[in-house]
Amino acid sequence: MNQQTYFISQITESDDGVNALLARHHADMRAGSPEESCHVMTGDELRAAGAQVFALRDGDGQVQSIGALKPFGQAVELKSMHTAREARGLGYGRKMLAHLLQAAKDQGAQSAWLETGSQEAFAPARSLYHSAGFEICPPFGEYVEDPLSTFMTKRL
């Protein structure tokens, strides 16, 4: 894995590497949360909701991280942030988050929102979001209070 070089691009059509990582993300989320607390979306659901899907590829061209921006009024919701297990701890998630937030700003979004798990397995994700300036907030949009969810927001 060549981690010195990376590039992030928006995915506008089906991509095998992105689909594989989305499938792993979907399986992980479904395995760790009961259905009523699992808000993960498939690639088709993301596209149907008008979300922009992005992929971070390492210098060898392998998809190492994914993320999506789903329109939410004058804001965006971050969806499907996921880094491949073997690439965790290399900074790819932080790079993807920075890219998503900049893309949201460039599109005129005033804020970014997200839902993530409240379980221990999600502690690294919550820490990443907190370090990027996200703050805990009440449920937003169609979400409802759930002890297995943490809701966060950031002004852009």
Outline the secondary-structure elements.
Layout: E1 6-11, H1 16-32, H2 43-48, E2 52-58, E3 63-72, E4 75-83, H3 92-106, E5 111-117, H4 123-131, E6 135-136, E7 149-155
Parallel strand pairs: 4-5
Antiparallel strand pairs: 1-2, 2-3, 3-4, 5-7, 6-7
Explain how this protein is built:
It comes from Pelagimonas phthalicica. GO terms for molecular function: acyltransferase activity, transferring groups other than amino-acyl groups. It is an enzyme of class 2 (transferase). Pfam families: Acetyltransf_1 (PF00583). The protein is α+β, with helices and mostly antiparallel strands. It contains four helices and seven strands, in the order βααβββαβαββ. It has one domain: Gcn5-related N-acetyltransferase (GNAT) (Aminopeptidase), CATH 3.40.630. A seven-stranded mixed beta sheet has the order 1-2-3-4-5-7-6, sandwiched between helices. A hairpin with a 4-residue loop joins strand 2 and strand 3 (63-72).
What are its keywords?
alpha+beta; 156 residues; Putative N-acetyltransferase YsnE; GNAT_dom; 4 helices; Aminopeptidase; Acyl_CoA_acyltransferase; acyltransferase activity, transferring groups other than amino-acyl groups
Between the first and last Cα atoms, what is the distance in angstroms? Answer: 33 Å
Number of helices: 4
Q: Please estimate the helix content.
A: 25-40%
By CATH, the topology is: Aminopeptidase
Name the CATH superfamily assignment.
Gcn5-related N-acetyltransferase (GNAT)
Report the principal-axis shape. globular
Numbering strands along the chain, what is their spatial order in the largest sheet? 1-2-3-4-5-7-6
- Please tell me the total number of domains: 1
According to DSSP, the number of beta strands is: 7
Low-confidence stretches: none
- Strand-residue proportion: 25-35%
